[in-house]
Specification:
Elements (H helix, E strand, L loop, with lengths): L1 H21 L4 E4 L15 E4 L2 E4 L16 H18 L7 E9 L3 H14 L7 E7 L9 E8 L7
Parallel strand pairs: 4-5
Antiparallel strand pairs: 1-2, 2-3, 3-6, 4-6
Length: 160
Amino acid sequence: MIKQVKWLYMSVGFLPLSINIGCTHHSEPVHSAALYPTSQAGFSQAIKSGNLLFTSGMVAWDVKRTPLPTSFQQQLDAIFINLEHLAMEGSSSLSQAIFLRFYVVDLDADKRNIISQKLQDLFPHAYKPASSLVGVSALATEELMLEIELISEINNPRPQ
């Protein structure tokens, strides 16, 4: 019984230290000149925090927000090109992806299959990032068919 009380006392005693350590990390915005600007809309393209990179939802726009590709596959491919540009700017890469979140307008089996094939092409080895696939009724503009968020590690390449 005394050992249990001692352990409880020690764990409570260390709690404030672990909270303080967890709050001292530094976050900084990441922007790529190859992508459409977002700061005038009030958000960063991505944020580096600790050893992680968090992207905002990425769509298929280029730097000038020119007309989007009209097929789902073309938008998906363009988004992953944009994500790779942004990941590289943040000292990361798609190969270091931990998590991908997909927002898809009018989600159906065909779109799920296209996404699944793209992920298999991007991550052909044993390592595969976690992901979520969310069906939505609309995104920021009418022509957008999907949006993808990425969380990746920084400077920690994955073994193949």
